[in-house]
């Protein structure tokens, strides 16, 4: 596959997953509604609650993340390579210059956040800036800028709303079962629907999360491919990924809430080979990413 | 609905289509211009760094007159170049003149150790990167625009309204490779 096909395939797969996701939500809402005889009103309530919460994180998320990661803003003089490489890549894709931050941590890693290209933030650890050479750093920054250019942050925000919706749907359904009066007469076949509803209420939040992770992994591949297209140097990014993943140090600034943002999963040693472990990863296996980059 | 209405409707549709196509082409052409000014800015930056560099090197290596002349000549050629092709060539000449300058600088340890020289060298390298990326952005835009005016049915409109193909800013392969110094 050449690079354009790779990018197209990634894009199509993401939309396919999104479509599947929305179909899944509609199904869950339908079953709950039927079991409760209250139609689609559930969907509305769940959408409003999770939408409001995500809107908050959408507008203020970047500041919160920078605060909890303890990042300082980068200076042109002090972080010459970081600053100029980003400047150059922005010229290359025609993006406005994002705000740059540095986390003082010797574990090499980086992430991008912000709701659109005009409010973007790229953050790198001092370990990344010290351990990579200029070409490798260029690859990593290009990967982060691709996330910004492809509106991944916005996409993941939308997905977060959907995941939140499922969680609330399940929650509301469970509660409503609790308060169900005995006096209501059950219609033919409704018992069975309630049974399915309970199963869905338990399983659907999990399934939603799995879909979210699948989308996240697809976006990582897409960002890798776009970065290779931008720098015309997939090997440098492959080398950088290898260096970052082989590094023994653990990033202390990362926690469960911010892990999916980084270029490489900051929790090392947790990646075991079983297929279902793979399902729970925010990132595709590094070896696979390196292999694809080197074959371009 | 009578036939007159249908025909009028069709004509309106065609006009709307032509209108949006024309506006799209204009937007694309402006993007190419904008991308070109991006290259222009970086080339100017490079040109501005040269006198400073020449002065610094002169302070340590007075006798390398020929090299300074070459660099200055290439610099003014780049300043006066008008179209992408001429600019591309002048830029390439400047690159090779600078390459000799830096090769000669290797013989002067004091110069190599000078903070000012090191800073200028870094700035120049960075500017060269910037030129390369600005060129990539420009060429991507030119490719998009040229494709748009050449595909059917756009080509009919583009020809009648005087949309012409834009020139690519050619990359020199040798410029992209890193110079390896052997001892």
Evaluate the radius of gyration of chain A: 22 Å
Helix residue percentage of chain B: over 70%
By secondary-structure content and strand pairing, the structural class of chain A works out as mainly alpha
The CATH architecture assignment of chain B turns out to be: Up-down Bundle
Please provide a written account of the structure.
The complex is a heterodimer of chains A (296) and B (183). Chain A is built from ten helices and four strands. In chain A, helix 5 (134-149) crosses helix 7. Chain A is mainly alpha-helical. With 183 residues, chain B is mostly helical. Chain B has helices at 3-60, 65-80, 84-105, 109-113, 115-150, 154-160, 173-176. The longest helix of chain B has 58 residues, at 3-60. The radius of gyration of chain B is 24 Å and the shape is rod-shaped. Classes of the chains: A mainly alpha (296), B mainly alpha (183).
Keywords for this entry:
heterodimer; A: 296 residues; mainly alpha; 10 helices; elongated; B: 183 residues; 7 helices; 0% strand; rod-shaped
Write the layout of secondary structure elements.
The complex is a heterodimer of chains A (296) and B (183).
Chain A: H1 3-36, H2 41-69, E1 71-73, H3 80-93, E2 99-103, E3 110-113, E4 121-125, H4 126-131, H5 134-149, H6 152-178, H7 190-231, H8 234-246, H9 275-279, H10 286-295
Chain B: H1 3-60, H2 65-80, H3 84-105, H4 109-113, H5 115-150, H6 154-160, H7 173-176
